[in-house]
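Q: Protein A?
A:
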Amino acid sequence: MSKILIADDNEQIATLLAKFCVKEGLEPVLASDGEMVLKQFAAHVNDIAMVLLDVMMPKLDGFQVCKLLRKDSMVPIIMITARDEDCDRIMGLDMGADDYVVKPFSPTEVMARIRAVLRRSKSLETAAGGIVTISNLFIDLNKYEVRIGPERIRLTNREIELLYTLANTPVRMFSRDELLSLVWGDDYEGADRVVDTHVKRLRAKLEQVPHPGWEVRTVWGKGYKFEVL
């Protein structure tokens, strides 16, 4: 059984989420502070399929933990917070989180987010073997790794999935709605401007290394496409 690491210093919330995760066929592993998250993750690293990570935790907060986990792992991470502010959402995404849930929430909402993230990751990895190679670009969704030539590019999970979706079908134009469905999942309820934000950040990171043979291009008023030059 795949394991899910639930990190929350509120024992009542952690226990409730654990019960719902068991119903989803996931074995919960609990942690009540940031340092314990890292220890539990290291102890179960080969079995953990997802991390539910509360932002406000003792010792190390969720943002710090997310950043540390992302140094060595691309495991899906859903941040949980009581602060419904854009700056917190942006910080979590910049640290590498895959999704964001704001308290108070219903356990069924969290389970829907978990299913969506795991389903999306699995479907993307199995498509075309999860590997795309174009010119000096190499994308491996099985390892969540992107390279331009010999240089590894540090991208978030969502940025890798977005780049893979575009590059897996070069020349095809994807509308924002299509990218929301394919990358964020049908359960996503946010605005389509999130696509523009992620494309902007993705481009900024890709531009750190020369890649004259291809580009992520904006089709004005319509969407985006991966173009081989």
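Q: Protein B?
A:
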Amino acid sequence: MVAAMNDLAAQFRDTVEAWLKRTGTPPARLGQQALGDPSFVLRLRRGRVPRLDTADKVLTFIGKAPVGAAFRAEIEAFIEITRTKPYVLGLDAAGDPSFVARLRRGVSPRLDTVGRVRSWMAARSSESERAAIHVIAAGEPAPPRRSDTNDGDASPTDNKEGGTSMSGQPTKYLGTREAAAFLGLSPRTLDRYRVTGEGPAFHKFGSRILYAKADLEAWAAARRMTSTSDDRAGGRRVA
């Protein structure tokens, strides 16, 4: 898994090659139109590793989601969730204690560096932390996406099983608004339940509140009732 995440540059090359094959576009034309550099694909094939902003321009041109914004959001979410010092992340993951500061200033790292940093963060966070990082970075769990089997593109930002965490596993955590919608409650009601202890179990990552979907389902199941006259807190269980 970690090795696959670190091979972001190879995934990018595969995506470009798949698009060229599907569309029949000459490599020089893609480079010229996307970057003003007709030799880009040739040098990519020879092993050149592009910088993040360059890769994003190409991905956008061929209709794929760019990587840069998501990567920067993952960095900030990882720092918030794990309370890792930015200089520690930069030094250990990229060999550069100023890596995060430079990233925040708009400096664009190479794709292989992005892959190494993502792998480092995944290896140093728990499954629940990775899920929380995904939710925070994405703003909300990503909706399921249909697998595109027509062109064989292997975009480094595509997934075929809906929202995923940094571990590549389906996201199992919901923010307060998503959890409230899942239960048919208002976000304010869930906020109150956290104070009174009446609501489902929740997780706190830094300042973020997240709910495991399994906990929401268990809490709802415990309140299953067979009659409106049964007003006990737990309801009556049905076999």
